[in-house]
Known about the structure:
By secondary structure, the protein is mainly beta. The protein has one domain. It has 2 helices and 11 strands. A 5-stranded mixed sheet has the order 3-2-9-5-6, with no helix packed on it. Strands 1-8 form a two-stranded antiparallel ribbon. It is elongated.
Amino acid sequence: MWIEELERLHQIDHLILREPLPYIHVQYIFVEETEIRFVEKQLWHFSGSDKNRIIPKEKLLNLIETVLKPNYVFQELLVFHIPLEPETLTNFPSSFLSSATLDNLSLPPSLFIFHPFNTLYFIFQKKLKSVLSKGKSLTKKSVHFSKKHQGTQKTFY
């Protein structure tokens, strides 16, 4: 794969055109508080002749369920995609990273020299432990009735 891309780079003597993505890199990033705990990587290969590569919503959701670890929740899907036209190579934006929704994800063609950089990032955040759900309540008050005083007596624990 990389040898073919290198050979194509050496043979460029005219304007190159955007092509459908043959593959895309995928990274699953697991974060705890503000620190990355671990990253899993995959390479997805596309098939078919459709110019826009579409990843169906069902596949995205299924993938999230498959890689989800205990005590983590899916937080965000980011897409790094470089869909530049050959004429705009000198004036391109500073960032190609964008947030995506969990709907059908469309990846338009790009120049083959950028194919190795196009990546999907699935961000998973570790669930925070609830402090309030364990132990005795700090605001609990008990009221006991005593026959001696014919009133109430408050006892705080």
